[in-house]
Amino acid sequence: MIFLLLRKYQFTLPGELASFLFEFTGKEIPEMREKRRILYSRFNILFMIVFLLFSILILRLGKIQIVKGEEYREESEKTNQTVYSWNTPRGKIYDRNGTVLVENEPIYTLTYADPAGSTQQEKLELAKKLAGMISVDTKNMTERDKKDYWILTRKDKAYAKLSSTEQANLDDNEEYDLILERITDKELKEITGEEMEVLAIKKEMDTDSSSAKRLKSGLTTEERAVLNENLGKLPGVEVKVDSQRDYIYGDTLRQLFGKVGRIPEEEADTYEENGYDLNDLVGTSFLEQYYEKWLQGEKEKTTYIKDGTGEISEVKVDPGESGKDLILTIDLNLQQEAEKIIVEELKKDNGAKSAYVVVTNPKTGEILAIAGKKEMEKDIQDEAYGALYNSYAMGSTVKGATVLTGYETGVISPGDTFLDAPIKLSGTPLKKSYVNMGRINELTALERSSNVYMFHIAMKIGDYDYGARSGFEDPEESYDTFRKYFAQFGLGVETGIDLPTEATGYDGGVQKLGNLMDFAIGQFDTYTPLQLVQYVSTIANDGNRVQPHLMKEIREPNHESGQSGEVLEQFKTNVLNTVDMDLSYIKRVQEGFRLVMNGSHGTAASHFKGAAYHPAGKTGTAQVLDEDGGYNYNLTLVGYAPYEDPEVAISVVVPDVENDTSTINKAIGKRILDAYFDKD
């Protein structure tokens, strides 16, 4: 009856009452059946969701364990390991014939690696111990280094410099900066000489580096003995076998090899971007720097793996690989002979104090010898870099470029003649040759080194009418014309040599007509000995200017035989440009250069005429002011041989000679070319 009434009047019973009636009557009302059905459905859906989630979890765990287990294990190990690296020996440097020029000499180095994460105080105590066992250089300690050390070792005095208000309101960095400002010079003088050594060692220990820190290279026998006896008490400290460069032939080419040292501070970011560590040793100049990527080996790596307690449980060592070998284009025998000849000729000639020589293959650009010597306090010292970085007015050696510029601009044609007689311009000293030569063509002008012929070319390029004494309306264009054509031979521009930097000489700018005439005879702009040899090589090579280079090959080292192994890279001949001139013009100048050394009036015939190797070239003398207001002379020579098929080119520069009658430039050039052709 109750159920009928409820259904009739559509009453809904609360859940508790429905359950009570079910228990009381033993019958289930419809509302109860519907709720039970919904509840079962929800349970089924929930069960399916839980089942699916559990299945996904099982699959993910399986993937982690089976597919990526090794990857995650390695990643986990990374967080429990510390890697320190160490430079391996650099590649050796050889001459073109396989003679070792630079190798590595073993030395002992004290290193520090901190796999356990020591505190500053622990490092300080370790540095104190080491300072009692080794001596170190302290001259590079800065004022900031000293202040940091003063604060670390005198904390009470340091923080006494702060008021209670400052200590309450400033953060740690602000406090430290304020203390730094308040340390006096008198307080810094408290640091003793012994403490300075502790400071020097501590500074190296604090280097931000993943490499083992070099605390001292070149340990003495006594220092090694003391350290080895106490290594067990010196956590993180090792005595390692390191290497330093050994120059087999002393000063020969040493300047051009360059130096190896710490990464320069201003280049730190660049090196770090290329995977270097700030503690690495790298090439810092010349060949060592330019070929750093080859000479630098793959570093030795030591991995310290820690267990769950932070203790080192395993050490792994990857020995790395030494650097690749650099084979130079240099012929050691010719190089040594060139250096010997320069020294001997400087000793003979009291008026000459320095000399520079570059010898190349004009067709390939290979530098066979590059030498420089300078007298300093009665001792003649090596100055090979002067051939690259010292620039001089080269005098008449550049007259070949002047004649070719005249041809190409159309102001002269082959065979044109001018009267070699003094030229007088208003406001300019008399301009003349060393002797009046009469009417001559350009070949005789080159053979006898006529200044006046070149002056006429300059005046025509400047659009100056000497007879009417008028013209030269656009000086800038005149100078630009000369420099444009001279640059095609390598004069006044970079030669492209495989070194980090080179000099390009001095550009005198735009001046008067008289200065333009001086330009035409090599007494205005200045050039380097390397530019000079590229210039004559371009003429010898029918107008093809090739890049000069010192690298012949890069090879794998062969540790078993001690010789270099497989060729990894070769320097291919690189033609920088071909002179924009008719080949017949260049042939004409080649003939003029042949007459210089073989003609009856050739300025170099006294030294070269009759030489079996058939040389060609040009001499030069440039008048330059000395320190006292008088004049000295730059004596120069360019040449190549054989004239018919050149295989060698040379430039000789002897600057600031006290008299212009010296023939030291010709003597040096002749003897070196003789040595080259006698080498076989």
Automatic annotation (TrEMBL):
Keywords: Cell cycle, Cell division, Cell membrane, Cell shape, Cell wall biogenesis/degradation, Membrane, Peptidoglycan synthesis, Transmembrane, Transmembrane helix
Cellular component terms per the entry's GO annotation: plasma membrane
EC number assigned by the record: 3.4.16.4
Domain (Penicillin-binding protein dimerisation): residue spans on this chain: 88-315
Molecular-function GO term, any one: peptidoglycan L,D-transpeptidase activity
Record bears the keyword Zinc: no
Major enzyme class: hydrolase
Source organism of this protein record: Mesobacillus foraminis
Top-level taxon of the source organism: Bacteria
Localization (cell): Cell membrane; Membrane
Pathway(s): Cell wall biogenesis; peptidoglycan biosynthesis
GO biological process, one term: peptidoglycan biosynthetic process
The protein's name in its UniProt record: serine-type D-Ala-D-Ala carboxypeptidase
Keyword Electron transport: no
Catalytic activity: Preferential cleavage: (Ac)2-L-Lys-D-Ala-|-D-Ala. Also transpeptidation of peptidyl-alanyl moieties that are N-acyl substituents of D-alanine
